[in-house]
Amino acid sequence: MNRNTDDRQMVYLGALACHVPDHREDVSALCDENPGWNAETIVRKTGIRRRALARPEETAADLGYFAAERLFASGAIERPAIDGLIFNSHSPDYWMPATACLLQHRLGLPTTCAALDLALGCSGFTYSLWLAKSLVESGARRNVLVISAETFSRFCDRSDLSTVTLFGDGAGAALVTREPSGALARIGGTVLGTDGAGAEHLIVKGGAARSATQAGGEGESSRPRVWMNGPEVFSFTIATVRNCLQELVAREEIRWDEVRHFLLHQASGFMLDKLRTQLGLTEQQCPIDMEDVGNTANASLPILIDRLRRRGRFRSGDHMVLAGFGVGLSWAMTHLEWLENGESVPERE
Known about the structure:
alpha+beta, Peroxisomal Thiolase, Chain A, domain 1, 9-stranded mixed β-sheet, two-stranded antiparallel sheet, 10 helices, globular
């Protein structure tokens, strides 16, 4: 969204809502199960004291449904006006059909609504915004509902310090629309990228087609479990995020010091602290807000935006950049120009 963009070409973030499960698990419970783990050391490194966990009977689609219902309850749009639905998750209800098809019916959206799944992790929300914006810009769709939802906690081995102390569950729903009236923000450009050579550094192998074709692919070893090479993921993040944010700011024809909010995927406190230092940002410019929810993967950015908005942190005219990065390895950085005048509203997740 450079300064010469015609208003008639604009695409907007029309509404945003999220859902975070009520249930929390304190890190002390994990330490009770794993002698030798120290709760305060874990909290200091991860920035996470409690993780939000879905109920045993809930799936990512359920969490996404709750978030979408809250968006509709806000009055931002009527269901018949939705003509596109993107469900972003690594935790589909079934191998087939696409979970988006199930949500189209469950949410009462019209049968003229295009519905598809997008399987991306921590970059998934910003990728979905880019895809939805492209559909609206092209004229193919007018009002696209984006749902990013994840239950990564289900993939964690409870004895794996590198993952079970990080991942929580949650969902966000966003309306991407041509309609400017009442919109929260203008959606600008996006810088995207992929490096599949690093796929093995953050991966869930069990339970999918590739594991079923390999010797020993049945039984416990085929259960979906997340495996993460923390040092490699960290190196990728440090090497990628700053350059892509600088490219985005230059492409959008704004100055670095004009960006009021750098909203980064809430990966871990350690990683975000290092990025803050590398980028020369303050805590106010680059918030960390995951202590009571955990790393909710593709839902972390909509949850962060929703929380900050409800605290009155944004003002009309604020420039902000969203940075999603991780599983793939992939990344997507998006520019927003906020339109709504900030007023604190009650917390509701």
